[in-house]
Amino acid sequence: MQIERQSAEMHGYLPREAAALLTRALQRAPAALLLGPRQCGKSTLARTLLAERGDAVMLDLQDRADRARLQEPELFFEAHRSQLICLDEIQLLPEFFSLLRAEIDRHRRPGRFLLLGSASGPLLRQSHESLAGRIAQVELAPFLLQEVATTSNWKELWLRGGFPESLLASSDDDSIEWREDFIRTFLGRDLASLELGLPMPLMERLWRLLAHSQGQTLNTSRLAGLLDLRSARVKQLLAVLEQTFMLRQLPPLEANLSKRLVRSPKLYLRDSGLLHNLLGIETYDDLLAHPQAGESWEGFVIEQLIAAHPRWRPYFLRTSNGAEIDLVLERGQRRHLYEIKLSKAPKLSRGFHELVGQLNPDKAELIAPVDASYEAKAGIWVRSPFEACLRQPPA
User: Fold this and answer.
1) Largest Cα span, the chain
2) Are 280 and 292 in contact (CB under 8 A)?
3) What number of other Cβ atoms are within 10 A of residue 36's Cβ?
4) How far is C-alpha 186 from the chain's CA centre?
5) Domain ranges of the chain
6) Environment class of residue 236 by beta-carbon count within 10 Å: exposed (0-12), middle (13-18) or buried (19+)?
7) Closest C-alpha among 394, 317, 389 to residue 153
8) What span, in angstroms and rounded, lies between the C-alpha atoms of 113 and 335?
9) CATH for 17-139, options being 3.40.190.10, 3.40.50.300, 1.10.540.10, 3.40.50.620
10) Contact 301, 385 (CB under 8 A)
């Protein structure tokens, strides 16, 4: 990561894949909502975009002085009607959505408001209900492979995760300590602000249980028993973690196959760096020796592939006899299948090969940390995650 870290220090910004999506959203909709976990770079991306435009004003709703400028929001909107108005941490003022709707309807044109927020159920409901037909939504993930952009840096991205302060830290110790601070803040402040009514130690225990469940199918009864909670309560907590971009519940594919299919979703903590802190993994050697290294690699690659294929719907497929496809991406009638292996000399599983024959996908690949691509069997290629993510699907 030395080249990328020097570049970040020299220029102050690493280009983000979501920038183009956000620009297009502002060109077609009166308001755009940029969602993502805390500390993933939303404000930095917004400031860079606004500086390029030169016709914008940005307010941080965590700043008392900025909030004071909105004491009379109608007057503020009127004074800056010709500019793009950016409101950071919009979830702090959910009552503003009705005001934004009225202002948009008074003077409707593309690119009037850019809203930044850490996702939550109330925020999403407010944006969908108050600004229906007026707002476009863009997700910003932590750094991705194609953003830090060499074929040799995937090890550090996998170990540290994609949060900028963690990935670009000057040492492994600084990276680890930043992630510990993030976990404490997330559990103690962010989740507490959602008023879940769950003690912090119990929520921390849930998060650690999820780390040890990485890549496994959801067993709500088991989690409920370990936490001494009702199953319905556990499902509610998982939904909240998913809304805050911390957790992914990968749904099973509904396919017409002769074999019985697993119907429960698979669980993944989305950032590999946070996962490794929760598992006590500090170095790359620790990671390779850990019994969950394969599940960590699987989750890391899945996040990279999903982010590289916007508007494709992600699934997995597992039959009752154990045959599995780690990731299925669908868009319209097109279907891509992926098997994921942590090996320099990976071998196709028999089950994956059989399912490829039954599903007849447009593409089937085995993703592994290989140095060069090759065709393992007719129509099935072995590729590195870097190469697979750069090879975009047809529009």
Assistant:
1) 66
2) no
3) 21
4) 16
5) 17-139, 145-390
6) middle
7) 389
8) 36
9) 3.40.50.300
10) yes
Question: Judging by DSSP bridges, how do beta strands 334-340 and 324-331 pair with one another?
Answer: antiparallel
pLDDT in tens, the chain (395 residues): 333 443 343 344 688 989 999 999 999 999 999 999 989 999 999 999 999 888 899 999 989 999 999 999 999 999 999 999 999 988 788 778 888 999 999 999 999 999 998 766 566 666 767 788 899 999 999 999 988 865 447 899 999 999 999 999 999 999 999 999 999 988 877 777 676 777 888 889 999 999 999 999 999 999 999 999 999 999 999 998 998 899 999 999 987 776 788 899 999 999 999 999 999 999 999 999 999 999 999 999 999 999 999 889 999 999 988 889 999 999 999 999 999 999 999 999 999 988 998 999 999 999 999 999 999 988 899 999 988 887 554 44
Tokens at 68, concatenated: 């004071």
Q: Helix, strand, coil: what percent of the chain each, to 5?
A: 45, 20, 35
Predicted structure pTM score: 0.90
Residue 206 to residue 233: CA distance in whole angstroms:
12
Burial of 95 (0-12, 13-18, 19+ CB in 10 A): exposed
Q: Which residues contact 91 (CB under 8 A, 6 or more apart)?
A: 117, 118, 120, 122, 123
Report the Cα–Cα distance between both ends of the chain, in Å, rounded. 31
Backbone angles phi, psi at 261, to 5 degrees: -110, 150
Q: Is 86 helix (H, G, I), strand (E, B) or coil?
A: strand
